[in-house]
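To: structure subgroup
Subject: Chain for Friday's discussion

All,

I'm putting the inputs and outputs inline so they're searchable in the archive.
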Amino acid sequence: MRKSLKTGMSVLLATSVLASPIVVLPQAAYALEIEDVSADDTDTEEETEYTFEFEIEKALSSGDEITVRFPSGFTVDKNLRTRDVSLENDDGDEIEIDDVSVSGRNVTIELGERISKNTVLVLTIDYVTNPKSKGDYDITIVTSSESKGDTEEITIGKSSSSSSSSSRFDVSLGKTTAGDNTSVTLGQFNLSSALKEGKYIYVTMPAKDMLPKSISRSDVKVNGERAESVSISSNTILRIEIPEDVDGDKKLKLEFSSSAGIENPSSAGKSYTYEVEYDKKTYRSETFEIKDSSSSSSSSATFDVALSDRSAGARTSYTMDLDLSTKFYSGTDISVEFPSIEMVPPVISSYNVTVNGDQVSGLAVNGNRVSFRTPSGFSSTNSLTIKFAHEAYLINPRTAGSYEMVVKVDGKTYRSKKFEVGNASVVPPAVVDNTTATIALTRATASTPAGLQVGIKGLGLPLTKGKDFIEVVMPAGFRVPAYIPQNAVTVNGVAANYVGVRGQNLVIFPAQDIPAKTAVNVNVLESASIVNPATTGVYSISVYTSEEQGLLFARPINIVALNGVGFKANVASFTKDGKTTALAVAPYTVNGHTLMPASFYRDGLGLSVTWNNTSARIVSGNTTMQFKVGSNVATVNNQNITLPTAVQLKNNIPTIPLRFVMDRSGYQIVYVNGNYIVYK
């Protein structure tokens, strides 16, 4: 029932109440009205997708439920997921679903957003199996706003002659090649009942994937008049609202312009039919065939590719200009496939990719494919210009030759004209050994801002200032800011020319030329605001350059707990929980072994410690360690064990080998940039 009719009914009832106060109005039996139930396949024992169109008369809130109750004989897949169910309003806007559950033959959908009253909803549920027996079956829909719901009948297994018009209508196609975008004309043909303004006509496509995501009502005519509304209720069914000017017509002709975006079936050599349903009667077209095509699933259109640098292996911008057969809108899915995976970096910022000058949204990289969507508010058009800026760090194929690109727009495929990549002067890389190259953090504690020091022993190929770069790949877990000032990074002591960030990666452009075989020291200051992972463990940091193929080197980095205790050799203090505490004796080494005053084990690590000028005793859990000044033998739980170096007396306090105590109390030690950190 249309909203205007409902409003009129409400006014009429209200007027009746005022005129006749003794009249008692009946209460509504339910808070929704089912307008249509249909299935992709109504044969017995067929697994199919069901579509329900109904109007709610009470608003639903987020968390409310809609339940579809299938009668005895039906089977619903118990593993049904949210992706197998969709819910839209009659404008084609998707409504969020939080959860889908199945109990026997009942499917319950939990809403993720509010729906206003008097909204017409289109619900699709896949993986429903029809009964074994032919007949008429009642399907019920109920919401959280009621207890009874509404019921609609569907016929299973009935012969086509009993449910459809016996006459078949003509199909006229603008193009007859498989996969081509085409105009479509269905009919004219006689109807069993007259058209009525506000009711719906359903057109079932001969095959899947023929419909775009949306169709403008200006591209659809009903008996020569523009449709009142057009929506897609499943991937094969088109719903058309009947306009006012054809109300009462007993014949039907449907016209779809080529800009509607309908494609012919992708498979040639088969017979196809269109189905039109109106007022619960199904009308079928004459069969028609689709011609073969060398590119049946792709558009025949080709497009140009422009590069800022056509040299093999060069970093370059890419620009693609396409003229499409149909319009596209905001939220349109686009993917660009490059000739090889080596051309595409693992991360590309959406700032560096535009469509018709607008920054794209939802960008993702998967191998050689870059996918994104047109942004909200995007103006609909048939012309498409995709640009990857120089800062996207795309690299030409390293071998000269002819190449082509593939662009998919809303599921339609377009192939580029061939473009050439020319030879570049090839310089073989110098032989360098980076087995002793280093990577270190200034701090190793979790969730702590840290600087980064990279020591490259030598470059295989030279770097040109302002053009070539060093790329440091920070693993997942590190927090890397979107912007790092160039003065927060130095290369061989000179501030970087530019520092870019793409995802987790630092892209560092030196401000000076660096010859091959030259050592390179990259220093990222703590002011760059890189933060260590919150989770302790070993992480691998990798180093690349723009000029050399493959990994330069990678090194493991150990991130320790935030409650670690830090100290430096020959500095008489330690730091714990951000607080610095003085030590009676600075840590020092003897024959490569660090000795710490007995007070450190008590104040820094919280162990039970007692001492005097001749001995010390440390207790950790069930382990008791006893030491004598001047002796290299300790007693651990009454067992004598040789120390790596003898206990010494400094400033009237025993100093005890650190590693010996750590190994027996469950602590570990990490050395970072001159700092020792003891942690559990």
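Points worth raising on Friday:
The first strand starts at residue 32 and ends at 39.
The chain has a mean pLDDT of 85.

D.
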